[in-house]
Specification:
- By secondary structure, the protein is α+β, with helices and mostly antiparallel strands.
- It has five helices and 14 strands.
- 33% of the residues are buried.
Length: 245
């Protein structure tokens, strides 16, 4: 399964093998006061750092009485890697703050490599990249595919075929129909699901989706919304999908 998935990823993203995760020689060294959850830490100087490239399950999500599955495991893993009162290397992202005022940065290992890569490989969270902080997606998608193929961590449970609610969703479904037009590609599946390509998606990725055949299985993630005849999910970036063989 893992081999087939990796082959499918390379078929859909032909440049992924050419982009290895970088090793940084310039960074800021900070002092960690507390690991808040699997992707956020608090520094002694009061700065709150949100990791770029990963979204781990929520510990305390509004309306939930218990942490999401995998949330405690992600925090425990990070606390082992970055204990309280330890130091951490950071490279700040191009866009330095999110909507909650947190600083956005890439945490690094002791030798200057992306720590998020290890987290994705272990299935502690899913890949999440928001422009303009979407560099390194090739290598991070490959890391995530290892966990996905081995059904590790958050990937241990089967994914739904149609959205359960409006908002960010991870889906795995069988393709029924593929339509190509001047406006892009539309993929239809069971349950009234339509997946459409946005204008920001590269021509190469649109061509890859256009070559899908009925009966093939596709993994997609993105914001879904309810429509009059089903569900609609937009794909705007190549890391939002891959074909399974």
């Amino acid at each position: 399964m893992l081999l087939r998935l990796c082959v499918a990823l390379l078929v859909f993203s032909p440049f992924s093998a050419a982009f290895a995760c970088p090793q940084f020689s310039q960074y800021e060294t900070v002092n960690v006061k507390k690991v808040i959850d699997g992707d956020t830490v608090l520094l002694f100087d009061g700065r709150r750092i949100r990791f770029v490239g990963i979204d781990t399950p929520e510990l305390y999500k509004k309306g939930r009485l218990a942490p999401e599955p995998g949330a405690l495991a992600a925090r425990r893993w990070l606390r082992n890697k970055i204990p309280e009162r330890s130091q951490m290397k950071l490279v700040f992202a191009m866009e330095r703050r999110d909507d909650y005022g947190r600083l956005l940065a890439h945490p690094l290992t002791a030798d200057g490599r992306l720590l998020v890569k290890s987290m994705l490989t272990a299935g502690l969270g899913e890949l999440l990249l928001i422009p303009p902080n979407h560099g390194y997606w090739h290598c991070l998608l490959q890391a995530e595919s290892i966990a996905y193929g081995r059904r590790l961590g958050i990937w241990s449970q089967n994914l739904p075929r149609v959205p359960a609610r409006t908002g960010w969703q991870r889906l795995r479904f069988q393709v029924h129909e593929v339509h190509q037009g001047r406006g892009g590609v539309t993929i239809r599946a069971a349950g009234g699901l339509k997946v459409r390509t946005g204008k920001r998606l590269s021509a190469q990725s649109r061509r890859a989706l256009g070559r899908l055949q009925a009966g093939e299985h596709l993994f997609v993630r993105g914001h879904a919304r309810k429509t009059a005849d089903g569900w609609l999910l937009w794909i705007n970036h190549p890391w939002q999908f891959h074909r399974e063989k």
